[in-house]
Amino acid sequence: MRDVLPELAEHWRAGRPVAVATVVSTSSSAPRPAGTSMVVLPAGDVLGSVSGGCVDGDAYEQATEVLRSRAPVLRHYGVSDSNAFAVGLTCGGTIEVFTQYVDAESAPWFGEVADAVAAGTPVAVATVVADREPGRVGRCLVVSPDTGLDVGGLGSVRLDEAVARAADGLLRDGASGTLTFGPDGEQGDATRVFVWTAMPAPRMLVFGANEFATALAGMGSFMGYRVTACDARPVFATPSRFPAADEVVAKWPHRYLAEESEAGRLDDRTVICVLTHDPKFDVPVLEVALRLPHVAYVGAMGSRLTHTDRLDRLREAGLSEGQLARLSSPLGLDLGARTPAETAVSIAAEILALRSGASGARLSAHSGPIHRDADWSPAQIDARLIGAGVCR
Predict the structure, then answer these.
(1) Element (H, E) at 134
(2) How many angstroms separate the CA atoms of 133 and 14, rounded?
(3) Which residue, 75, 104, 133, sits at the end of a domain?
(4) Are 129 and 56 members of one domain?
(5) Which residues, including other chains, have CB under 8 Å from residue 247's CB and lie 6 or more apart?
(6) Which of 24, 296, 344, 388: disulfide with 216, CB 3.0–4.6 Å?
(7) Which domain holds residue 134?
(8) Tens-place pLDDT, residues 47-103
(9) The XdhC Rossmann domain covers which part of the protein (predicted)?
(10) Alpha helices in the chain (DSSP H)
(11) 268 and 344 share one domain
(12) Is residue 369 included in any domain, yes or no?
């Protein structure tokens, strides 16, 4: 949804109705994650994709019918059978796609959602995609804990309350998924609700101003991070050196990192990459980084010898073995990378593997699932929150 949201908002504000097809559940090797959307305009133009090609044609036909009838549709797509022309996923996965009519009358809250996403404010949109009462299907509830935004409704006050709590949990987890409830918000499976969440982009802090840092900034931007490049030397810390970065800061790295932490602008999705190659820069910033209680990743570039020397210096600075164990050094996966671009791929691959809990091994070397499912019941949401130490 996020990829097509700006253009979707433009059509909404212009009073042009659209049909939005969204992946609401996946299993096995589904090509696109939950929350991926395709928009079909009245003139027949298409924005986005729900499958990368294999079922987009049928999803398009469903969307054109929804534009005509205004009635929402939930459609299941699975593995193709012996009929070579059957609609299905040859990759072996299954997806469900919910298609709904969207205009200013059916979704008066849409402008607030688009504004929240543009401002980097966490927001969730919960939509009933299946229910024993057909009149509930397509109803939406919009929740934004940071702003107190709570508009729309799903047909039951208790259901709204239960879904809002679960949506808050998904926002904390940075995930979208389908939840099941009883008709009044209790445990059950009579009502299926898809919750799409939008969080501010996670941050990538790149310390150092060299060719490797420039390449990594570009890769981080490509991955969806909000990238900050920082170096103590103003002559090197320039926008022209980091065209893909969202901001470039000329400041001592350890001071900048400490300031960002004290201001509350770092979280458990933040990744920190130190590419300075100079102990007077990288040791102080790593000392600050490894003392931070909640960041996703701290990595540093350098040879094995540099790594050993760096650890000794950090121990002298008072860091514990537990804190040092959080350091990825040399950073990146063993891909044989040499050039700045190849090294950026190596670093990005390590960050992605750690973020998803994957092994980083070749997919052809094992037979496990390629993708992970994202359908949770309220009980599973509660379990995830309890495991993360979050109380509601």
Answers:
(1) none
(2) 33
(3) 104
(4) no
(5) 227, 228, 229
(6) 344
(7) 108-200
(8) 888 876 668 888 999 999 999 999 999 998 875 543 333 455 555 567 899 999 999
(9) 204-351
(10) 5-13, 56-69, 110-118, 157-173, 211-222, 253-262, 279-291, 304-316, 321-324, 340-356, 378-387
(11) yes
(12) no
